[in-house]
Write a structure and sequence with these properties.
By secondary structure, the protein is mainly alpha-helical. The chain is built from ten helices and no strands.
Length: 286
């Protein structure tokens, strides 16, 4: 009678070509996200905006001129800065979105290989790589949301670069008047009422878009959480690797979704009544 040989655990295998392509894409998109947006967003007259100080130097007098104009429309100098900032966030958002897709695909590939592998050989490194990829995917998701927010409300986004907490010169005078107007908003009058209304509306839009995105992503993340818990429940009790991995995925997805719900609620409140939060912003509290 032949005695069957003991089953040999399968080594952890990852499709080499797919892994190489995804890693190369992730590295290329990550580098592009850091270095390309300022150059791609600038035209010939905005080449100096690629350096933050150059952008701030152009923004300060343009912002003061806008406030003094009392008009809803941006003067050409400020419109040029805001348009650049819009394009900057569009480019970054597209790159972050592409990077997110690549990292999700890479993470799925690595986690599947980890779950299918048998034995300890190579699995710690595989699990670590999958975990790091998942964290980077969450960072990319946050970058997508932040850049969509900046593209929808570029004026509020770019003014965050001004030293509003400690303004000096003509900027100090403008910021002081804005603070005074916001402290009594909407019971205010004067030549700057129109400009103040634009600031409040744009700031409300800045928070409204984040509230919407956070709500949508929270709902989307509920799907993976439910799927993970179902796989956890369906897995054999002896399959500790699957149960442990699915359990952690279910918990973390639920926690991230819960955090996004909190973000959505907070930003919904700010969007409904943006003036107090905008006052805090111009007092340097953001």
């Amino acid at each position: 009678m032949r005695i069957p040989k003991a089953a040999v655990p399968r080594p952890a295998r990852v499709p080499g070509r797919a892994l190489a392509v995804l890693v190369a894409l992730a590295v290329a998109l990550g580098a592009a996200f850091v270095f390309a947006p300022s150059r791609l967003a600038a035209n010939g007259s905005e080449s100096g905006f690629s350096e933050q100080q150059g952008l701030v130097d152009a923004l300060r007098p343009a912002f003061v001129a806008y406030w003094r104009s009392g008009d809803r429309r941006f003067p050409p100098e400020l419109e040029r800065v805001v348009d650049y900032w819009f394009r900057f966030h569009v480019v970054k958002g597209v790159l972050a979105g592409a990077l997110l897709i690549v990292l999700v695909a890479l993470g799925v590939l690595l986690w599947r290989a980890f779950l299918r592998s048998g034995g300890p050989r190579g699995t710690p490194a595989l699990a670590s790589a999958a975990a790091v990829t998942s964290v980077l995917a969450l960072v990319s998701l946050a970058a997508v949301m932040a850049n969509v927010q900046g593209a929808v409300a570029p004026f509020s986004s770019v003014t965050s670069m001004l030293p509003l907490g400690t303004p000096d010169g003509q900027l100090a005078g403008a910021v002081g008047e804005i603070r005074q107007g916001l402290a009594h908003y909407p019971d205010t009058s004067g030549r700057n009422t129109a400009a103040l209304q634009v600031m409040v509306d744009d700031f409300g839009r800045y928070h409204a878009v984040l509230a919407v995105m956070a709500s949508v992503v929270a709902v989307v993340l509920a799907g993976p959480s439910v799927t993970a818990w179902r796989r956890f429940a369906a897995a054999d009790r002896t399959d500790r690797r699957t149960r442990r991995t699915m359990g952690w995925c279910g918990v973390l997805s639920a926690l991230v979704a819960l955090a996004l719900v909190v973000v959505a609620v907070a930003n919904t409140g700010t969007a409904a009544d943006p003036a107090p939060a905008l006052l805090g912003f111009y007092e340097g509290g953001w």
